[in-house]
Design goal:
The strands form two sheets. Strands 8-1-2-11-10-9 form a six-stranded mixed sheet. It has a five-stranded mixed sheet with strand order 3-6-7-5-4. Helix content is 15%, strand content 44%. The chain is built from four helices and eleven strands. With 172 residues, the chain is mainly beta. The protein has helices at residues 14-19, 75-78, 155-158, 161-171, and strands spanning 21-28, 31-36, 40-45, 59-65, 68-74, 91-99, 102-110, 112-119, 124-125, 139-145, 148-153.
Length: 172
């Protein structure tokens, strides 16, 4: 007589379930990325960015957002993509980033914003293994939508805590 082993179909699905929801999609080069809509505070066209000396190349500087100084990071440069002239489609997405016990506002420069997608748990797959030495803590997973793959970013993890500490001191 065979014994059936019942496994909980929800095991391993909790991570995926947490990732389901609404995402704002945007382009960097030819790739499509997405961040959770709940993290997005505002989307604006590129405006004057005040450069801050002694910051990494991907930190473009700061902007004044209704009296608040907000650091701006060019995601192209952060991800090692070639720098590009800003166009009519270039946007700054102001996101809320969790850093230690506080919440920081940060602007990220992207090539263009696409749409808001509602992703179900079944649309999202775990990040594939890229081999030893390749660590991708800032990728929540990969979403399949309309025949394309979108890279889901954990915006809290995109910048290292050391970089966030540096940005926080710039804003103070």
């Amino acid at each position: 007589m065979e014994t059936a082993v019942l496994t909980n179909p929800r095991e391993g699905a909790t991570k995926t379930d947490e990732r389901a929801g609404k995402y704002l999609t945007f382009q960097l080069a030819r790739e499509e990325f997405a961040i959770q809509v709940l993290k997005v505070r505002e989307i604006m066209g590129v405006q004057d960015i005040t450069a801050v000396p002694q910051t990494p190349a991907h930190v473009k500087g700061v902007i004044n957002l209704r009296g608040k100084v907000v650091p701006v990071v060019d995601l192209r440069l952060k991800f090692g993509l070639p720098e590009m002239e800003y166009t009519q489609r270039t946007c700054i997405i102001v996101v809320q980033v969790q850093f230690q016990a506080s919440v920081l506002l940060m602007g990220i420069v992207v090539d263009g914003v696409s749409e808001v997608l509602n992703l179900a748990a079944g649309d999202i797959e775990d990040t594939p293994e890229f081999g030893s030495g390749v660590v991708t803590p800032y990728i929540l997973g990969m979403a399949k939508s309309k025949g394309k793959v979108k890279i889901l970013l954990d915006i809290d993890q995109v910048l290292s805590s050391q970089e966030l500490q540096g940005l926080e001191s710039v804003v103070q």
